[in-house]
Amino acid sequence: MRRRQALLARRRALMAARNGMAMPLASKAENHVSQPATLAFPEGFYRDGTVAMPLPNGWSADATRNGVSTFRIAPANGSSEAQATLAIVTAASTPNQVFGRQQRNMLGGVSFADLRRTVIDKMITAGGWVVNDRQREVGNQRVFEVIGQTPASNGKSEQVWNVYFTEVKGRIYSLTTNTAESSNARITSDAEKFLTSFNPTDGSKNK
């Protein structure tokens, strides 16, 4: 029964990845507490249909669907256009009896392994692979970063994917950028600036 449930959950996650949906994560430390499939952004995150937060230069809000905001990133110095997406992954939880190393390998009550698995599934769907992952501090915020790659296809060069997970005020967010390798340093620098000032609950005050 448990094996069947795990297979069904994985199938739902893969289908959601194809449709661009934010899916809940199941963590062993969460006592099987279920989360809604799509969590809304906090009140004040949008104003008049646009993101009420300062964006890096060249970033513009594109669309919002199923709790995922997409941003276009204008090309610079002849580079190709890039894209970023922001989503709420799940609500943070308070795990029971988690100490030491296990606690250090979690973010908002969700294990790094579970967060990494969501990126692995996304890369499999896109025909790519995960290159590396690391825990960092970005703007005094604890961040778990997963780096992936997808091969060149349909006239696009090989793409580098940087997925940043961070917890802000009871929610775990993911910020994903994908761009050609030649533009990756600039895009990741801008993404980290975005994370440094990321305060969605107070978004309406930042403009």
Describe this structure in words.
This protein has helices at residues 2-19, 100-104, 112-126, 184-196, and strands at residues 46-47, 50-51, 59-65, 68-73, 82-91, 106-107, 110-111, 129-138, 141-150, 159-168, 171-180. The protein has 207 residues and is α+β, with helices and mostly antiparallel strands. It has one domain (2-205): Mog1/PsbP, alpha/beta/alpha sandwich (Protein Transport Mog1p, Chain A, 3-Layer(aba) Sandwich). The protein has a seven-stranded antiparallel β-sheet with strand order 3-4-5-11-10-9-8, with helices on both faces. Helix 1 packs across helix 3. It is globular. The relative contact order is 0.18.
The total of helices stands at: 4
Using only CA atoms, what is the Rg?
17 Å
Low-confidence stretches: 16-38, 202-207
N-C termini distance: 51 Å
Q: Largest sheet at a glance?
A: 7 strands, antiparallel
Q: What is the correct CATH architecture?
A: 3-Layer(aba) Sandwich
Spatial order of the strands forming the largest sheet: 3-4-5-11-10-9-8
Number of strands: 11
How would you briefly describe this protein structure?
By secondary structure, the protein is an alpha+beta fold.
Task: Give the topology, please.
Elements: H1 2-19, E1 46-47, E2 50-51, E3 59-65, E4 68-73, E5 82-91, H2 100-104, E6 106-107, E7 110-111, H3 112-126, E8 129-138, E9 141-150, E10 159-168, E11 171-180, H4 184-196
Antiparallel strand pairs: 1-2, 3-4, 4-5, 5-11, 6-7, 8-9, 9-10, 10-11
Keywords:
globular; 207 residues; alpha+beta; 25% helix; Protein Transport Mog1p, Chain A; two-stranded antiparallel sheet; single chain; disordered C terminus; 7-stranded antiparallel β-sheet
